[in-house]
Amino acid sequence: MSYRAPVRDIRFCLEEIAAIDGLKATGAFPEFSEDLTRAVLDEAAKLANDVIAPTNWAGDREGCTLKDGEVTTPTGFRDAYSAFVEGGWQGISAPTDHGGMGLPRALGAALMEMLQSANMAFGLGPMLSLGAINALIAHGTPEQQAMYLPNIVSGTWSATMNLTEPQAGSDVGALRTKAEPNPDGSWAITGQKIYITWGEHDCAENIIHLVLARTPDAPAGTKGISLFLVPKFLVNADASLGERNAVKAIGLEHKMGIHGSPTCTMDYAGAKGWLIGPEQGGMRAMFTMMNDARLHVGVQGVGIAERAYQRALAYAQERRQGRAIVGEGDAPHAIIDHPDIRRSLSIMKAKIEAARALCFHTAVEADMAEHQDDEEERAWAKRREALLTPLAKAWSTDIGVEVSSLALQIHGGMGYIEETGAAQHYRDARIAPIYEGTNAIQAIDLVGRKLSMENGLAFEELIEDIQQTVEDCATSSNEDLHYLANRLGPAAETLNAGARWLLSASEDDRLIGATPFLKLASEVTGGWLLCVGAVAAQRLLKDESAESDEDYAQARIDLAYIYSEVVLAHTPCALSEIRLGAESVFEPGRFMLESQ
Amino acid sequence: MKILVPVKRVVDYNVKVRVKPDQSDVDLANVKMSMNPFCEIAVEEAIRLKEKGLAEEIITVSIGPAQAQETLRTALAMGADRGILVQTDQTTEPLAVAKILAKVVEAEGPSLVILGKQAIDDDANQTGQMLAALLGWPQATFASEVKLDGEALEVTREIDGGLQTLAMSLPAIVTTDLRLNEPRYASLPNIMKAKKKPIDTKTPDDFGEDITPRLQVLKVSEPAKREAGIKVENVTQLVDKLKNEAGVL
Q: Quick check: A547 pLDDT over 80?
């Protein structure tokens, strides 16, 4: 089953739900237009469908190999990467000053979704480079930018993020990698990093590692961390490649999925590096990388869900079993006509669209937060981006796992057989809730920082927006939308009640409620955005002048209905789990947990 | 030297087409449309000639609805220099298209016109040949290799049972076969540059051509559904069925 990028769904989401059009008014994107969006998405789709997607299977089967510090990527990866570089896609949203295309990040997110659907293991390479590009733009010196950015933006060089060490996972402050000053102003980096995605490979000419390390006498914990740029090959003043730096891959992980992505253990033996940003300012720089990467991992969740869904849909149309009540012609009928399969597919599709809308809305607000002229509106967008980023990351990646699991289920026994291909998506999807800050870390970020920032203003603004859409649906001339209002209204009230409870709860109670609250907040926000889409679809249905596609518009309303009945209708039950409280789980002691 | 490349907007090759309920035509409402794949090959060939320094300018032209502008943009993103849209909502038949193209050739003065051998919507395979006749130019259809040396053009074409090589002098018409080249993907920078390349919009009237269809479509129907096969017991039965039931022996 080959992948076909859902260009139309992506466009509807960007244009009608996330309102990407609003970016024109900022004046920051002189090239950006509806025509361009269409042309860019169409061409990105060709690349994803015809060049990158065909490498997915070999990537999973072959995996990467490491020999003498050199990693060989699976068959087809090098050619696909070359095509990606030649197409100039790495720089889609990078500023033109640095050789990028200067298009909105939201359009970059759409490209990212296609890459991740086409081949998630492959898509990780460009994703990591993008994080490094943003970190260098935000924190690099003009000299560093001039020296490294053009080649990373073009994709000629790739880049990595080196955070994790065996004892420093979620607690990055526990890292031990050392940086000692050299006489020439550079630093000598020594230590070992693990789980380094695309840490070594054979697709790009050079690899620029961004490495967190501790300078001499730095205080313990996160405050003492600095960020360094460590190139695989040192770069001469004329940008040509110099000698090999003392950094190399000494191990490759054997993983459950994303086999095509080289996950390396990197050894730094006094490697030459340069400080990015101020000494002991590493955490701030890291968060620039992480924040972007979190949204992109959310997009990855959408991408892998879409890929798995397409495979399941194709299989359900092909596979014939038994007699279906609604089946046409003689039995056996295609299993898509069996009620439970049809129900599953409907829910999968609705959830993918909700997660996509959540990610693209966040991406558009990230653009707004950077480029909006009006200071207040810029601050509004910044708050919205900050609030929704943990939701986009955690919920979309959970949906990636849920949908790829359902997609496997639709295949029945064949789904459990590797050759069918459905299992790969499930294995691939499973990493996304873990890396880039586990989903629990996202939930802690939400209830610990985002919910209460500026006295809960971001959250209040979100509730206001949702209530506006409840109003729009309730007063619509289309009665179908009244049903949506009936579900979205109580869901928003539940969300508000959950938030109020958390804000007045003790810290340990709040942390017990964090993950269920993130789920509730995401389900309601995703549902809200589907309702925004339904309102837009209703506008298209009424618009007789436009060459609108009534079937497509009606389908947006129908999907929102299914989502509201299946997901939003459940939300009032979420309060009980949010309010579970620390006492319920800690009071019984560990004894309760023991198998006896 | 200028090269003219006509391109047609057709239903995308990935779309499973459906016949309209009234059997008047294929249903094109809200169906993805793209550049005809043979036209893409023509654009690619023109770009390669330009990249070799054998041509100075590539003009691409499309005759069709306003949306055909997107098809022209695709050609411009691949590397054509400017576009001409001859806008009409009328069904375009090969003869009408060839007549307009002849006028465009007169106005633009290209030495070479490269067309797709046929469009995947009506599969007519006529426009290139008609254009050659109207202009009185030599033609090389179904090209699988094109070599240009000054004014001398050598074209290898795929024919039944082998390859035929033709030599001719410019100006000439070439129509492309599937194996001539593999069209490139437009790069992101070129997609953006294409937005700034000029597209001239004209109408058939500007060329004094009446493009009213001369053909009448009586009926469009789906291909007959393939029937389930049967297993034969032995070769004798197979031969018997081929002879007496299928009537192919």
A: no
Q: Which domains does chain B have, with CATH numbers?
A: 2-222 (3.40.50.620)
Question: Each residue of A242-259: pLDDT tens digit?
Answer: 999 999 999 999 999 999
DSSP string computed for B121-163: TT----HHHHHHHHHT--EEEEEEEEEEETTEEEEEEEETTEE
Q: In 3-state terms, what secondary structure has residue B226?
A: coil
Nearest to A11, CA basis, from A35, A41, A47, A49: A41
- Under a CB-based contact definition with an 8 Å cutoff, are residues A433 and A300 in contact? no
In terms of Cα–Cα distance, which of B142, B147, B154 is closest to B117?
Answer: B142
CA atoms of A52 and A61, how far apart (whole Å): 16
Mind telling me how many Å the CA of B115 is from chain A's nearest CA? 22
pLDDT per residue as tens digits for the range A387-419: 999 999 999 999 999 999 999 999 999 999 999
Structural contact between residues A477 and A411, judged by C-beta atoms closer than 8 angstroms: no
Residue with tokens 């924190």: A139
- Residue B114 host element (H or E): strand B112-116
Which ipTM was obtained for this model?
0.88
Residue A560 token pair: 């929102």
Cβ atoms within 10 Å, residue A137? 17
Per-residue 3-state assignment (H helix, E strand, C coil) for A39-69: HHHHHHHHHHHHHHHHHHHHHHHHCCEEECC
Which of A2, A29, A43 is the best residue to mutate to test the B interface, defined by the most B CB atoms within 10 Å of its own CB?
Answer: A43
Alpha helix segments (H runs only) across A446-549: 457-474, 480-504, 507-542
Q: Are A439 and A515 in contact (CB under 8 A)?
A: yes
Number of H helices, E strands in chain A: 18, 11
Residue whose entry in the numeric block shows the structure tokens 């999968």:
A348
What are φ and ψ of residue A566, in 5° steps?
A: -90, -45
Q: Who's near B150: CB < 8 A, 6+ residues apart?
A: none
Tokens representing B36 are 């005809």
Is A205 marked active-site?
no
- CB A549 to CB B30 under 8 A? yes
B185 and A87 in contact by Cβ < 8 A? yes
Cβ <8 Å between A39 and B73? yes
Q: Which pair of structure tokens corresponds to residue A558?
A: 């129908």
Phi, psi of A119 (to 5 degrees): -165, 100
Alpha carbon B234 to its chain's center = 47
Instruction: Tell me which of A353, A385, A402, A436 is the catalytic residue.
Output: A436
DSSP-derived 3-state class of residue A325: coil
